[in-house]
Write a structure and sequence with these properties.
- This protein is of the alpha/beta class and 265 residues long.
- The protein has one domain (2-262): Carbon-nitrogen hydrolase (Nitrilase/N-carbamoyl-D-aminoacid amidohydrolase), CATH 3.60.110.
- It is built from 7 helices and 14 strands.
- The strands form 3 sheets. Strands 5-4-3-2-1-14 form a 6-stranded mixed beta sheet.
- The longest helix is centred in the C-terminal third of the chain and has 15 residues, at 185-199.
Length: 265
């Protein structure tokens, strides 16, 4: 399976509409890949809390429509990162906010295959917890190369129990879009490797670059195999990683080093 990880860089000076158009063109340029992955909240702004209310939209809003068209025109499965979702139905979550940090995944034909509402909200009582509802469902998708991938977002990476649930649901890979800041980028790289090693799964981790809302982003998007070896890692600027993944190697490694069979809890 050929994967393209699009580490998008942006700043406050780029209007959202222009960024959506630019990123759609970037997706189209990845024709020939099987899977393309974008970062978390790249359109609305990962740390642009004050803008989220105005930039919220339904799953089939302008961002979703642009990404569906780009996936169809490129002929790729597209994990379009996440949006600030406000359902057209007026649905409210348990905290009554009516906004979610929602990932969108499209098939080669542009059809929406899956959505994932971020379960763990970052902010310690402010930021996401103050503005957004928490997701409640563990979500997996079928990969073009066979096997299933678990979906998670950024701060989720710190909670290994989520990945155990995905593993037990049949995951051989984890796809993790993020808006992870430079101040804690070492945690980002370390935790992605840890999730790969402990669950014997491939990790495709796509972070943001640039500086926005006063926050320098960490970059260092990465693809890690089930042995915990980095197959590719980006720097701190906008960059595209193109990686060939052998998904059959996951089951081979699990047979060769059957650590998961020794789980007791």
């Amino acid at each position: 399976m050929r994967v393209a990880v699009l580490q998008v860089a942006y700043g406050d000076g780029e209007p959202m509409e222009e960024r959506v158009s630019r990123v759609a063109d970037l997706v189209r340029a990845q024709a020939g890949h099987d899977l393309v992955v974008l970062p978390e909240l790249w359109a609305a702004g990962g740390f642009a809390y004050r803008e989220w209310e105005a930039r919220a939209q339904p799953v089939d809003g302008p961002v979703g429509q642009a990404m569906a068209a780009a996936a169809r025109e490129a002929g790729v499965m597209l994990h379009a990162g996440s949006i600030v979702e406000r359902p057209a139905s007026g649905e409210l979550g348990p905290d009554g906010h009516g906004l979610w940090n929602t990932s969108l995944v499209y098939g080669r034909d542009g059809d929406l295959l899956a959505t994932y509402r971020k379960i763990h909200r970052f902010g310690f009582g402010s930021g996401e917890p103050r503005l957004m509802d928490a997701g409640e469902e563990v979500v997996l998708v079928d990969l073009p190369g066979g096997g299933r991938a678990g979906l998670s977002t950024c701060y989720d990476l710190r909670f290994p129990e989520l990945y155990r649930l995905q593993l037990d649901a049949g995951a051989i890979a984890f796809i993790v879009p993020a808006a992870w800041p430079a101040a804690r980028v070492r945690h980002w790289t370390l935790l992605a490797h840890a999730r790969a090693v402990e669950d014997q799964c491939v990790v495709v981790a796509c972070n943001t670059a640039g500086t926005h809302a006063g926050t320098e982003m960490g970059g260092h998007s990465q693809v890690v195999n089930a042995k915990g070896e980095a197959l590719a890692m980006a720097g701190t600027d906008e960059q595209v990683l193109s990686v060939e993944l052998d998904l059959d190697a996951v089951s081979a490694w699990r047979e060769q080093f059957p650590v998961l069979q020794d789980r007791r809890l």
